[in-house]
Specification:
TIM Barrel, 2 domains
């Protein structure tokens, strides 16, 4: 068995991004039912709401994980909750996980850490136009967001104000693209349709087997095309 599958309990090695406010039970359960690994976010800072979402996912008996974005956690309440919740898989991000690893491991939790680097970020910037900007490059954390008048100003400044994300709920729930930076990966430029989690995962798995099948055929034929 693929090691990622063994660690996550998912059917496919596809892990959902822990998008703040968005990555909650509705999305995570859809991803997990489709064979991927749903992740519950905690970067929104809404500790009680996120804890409630974790409990909702546990009640569904689906494989899932929780993301702990170190720089965005106000205290250790979420860490303690996760350690005592029975959660089996955690991703850490946005800072050094050094202080988190020991208690998480002691609770029997598998931990994956996301490590974006400045070099990798700059390399992506030199890839083509994707509709996103890398912000806060003169400080940390360095983030990527959709282009808007607000994010262009932040990009040009090189620094992001501490309260820049204060209006993020208005972005996600009211469509106000100037209320705060709309966080997004570079793959946002590839989006050309709205699809269900089930459809996205099925298409991804089908494409994987189509590509590996073709490569297998080339290997047997000792050919390159």
């Amino acid at each position: 068995m693929n090691r990622v599958l063994a660690h996550t309990g998912a059917r496919y090695p596809i892990v959902q991004a822990p998008m703040g406010w968005i990555a909650r039970t509705q999305l995570a359960s859809a991803v997990s039912r489709a064979g991927g690994l749903g992740i519950i976010e905690t970067s929104s800072g809404e500790t009680e709401a996120c804890q409630a979402e974790i409990n909702k996912m546990k009640a569904l008996n689906l494989p899932f994980g929780v993301n702990l974005p170190i720089r965005f956690l106000r205290d250790d309440a979420m860490l303690k909750f996760v350690c005592n919740s029975g959660v089996k898989f955690v991703t850490t991000s946005a800072g050094s996980p050094a202080k988190f690893i020991a208690p998480l491991k002691a609770a029997g939790i598998i931990v994956y850490h996301a490590v974006p680097t400045v070099e990798a970020a700059m390399k992506r910037v030199e890839a083509g136009e994707t509709g996103t900007l890398v912000l806060n490059k003169k400080s940390t954390p360095c983030i990527r967001a959709l282009k808007s008048e607000r994010t262009r100003a932040i990009h040009d400044e090189g620094l992001m104000a501490p309260d820049a994300l204060k209006g993020i709920r208005d972005v996600y729930f009211h469509g106000d693209m100037e209320a705060a930076p709309a966080l997004a990966g570079q793959s946002a430029g590839l989006i050309d349709a709205v699809k269900s989690a089930q459809q996205i995962i099925e298409e991804t798995v089908a494409q994987f087997f189509a590509i590996t099948g073709r490569l297998g055929g080339l290997a047997l034929a000792r050919a390159f095309g």
